[in-house]
Amino acid sequence: MSSTSTAEKLEANTYEDVNHRGHFANANQPPPPPPAIARPALPNGAALGLFSFGATCIGISLYTAGASGVAIPNAIVGLALFTGGVAQYTGGVVEFARGVTYTGSVFCIYSTFWLSYAAVLLPNTGIAAAYADDPKMLGNALGIYFVIWSIITVMFLLTALRKTLALVILLSLLSLTFLFFGITQFTHGNSSVAKATGVIGTITGFGAFYVGLGELLGADPNPPFLLPQGVFKH
Question: Domain boundaries in the chain?
Fold first, then answer.
């Protein structure tokens, strides 16, 4: 009667360990993984994005309404480029890094609105100069441009219907603001329409300040007070 020797058993066990476990049974165990390093939580970028948008929106709305006799909106270029553009885009990137797709998308895409609108106003781009022989065509082109942004805002509004009442009101006002900016361009700067556009846009800008202040206070561990946002119950 044959029996397997001790050496053969050891050899078989060693072969199995090498092929299935990757190391010998009597080898040293791998060291435990290092403990995870706690990383500080990313800051809330919503306040930055909302304040940036609100400031630029108020500026262009007041210029559109002809406040203080300002009829040419080109003074808004710097604000549109650096506040509505760069600062708001930064807020959107922070929100994406936090994993918040909605606010990241909102801030990044509206920063491109301000950057693209500033490009129209900058003389060196040649965009407005291309319509020098037909100013009405420029108005119609910008009218289409603003209507497109009104449609984009409506899509963001539909997504916000289960978030907060303050955000729903803000996006509703913003969609009207873009629509009225478009109408102002289609009517080639009609004074009555331009003033109505300026009023609605200014209210929208201050609405963005309100929501932004609410986000800033909510992110503070010891806020002096909180602003009601009207959070919907799910």
Answer: 45-217
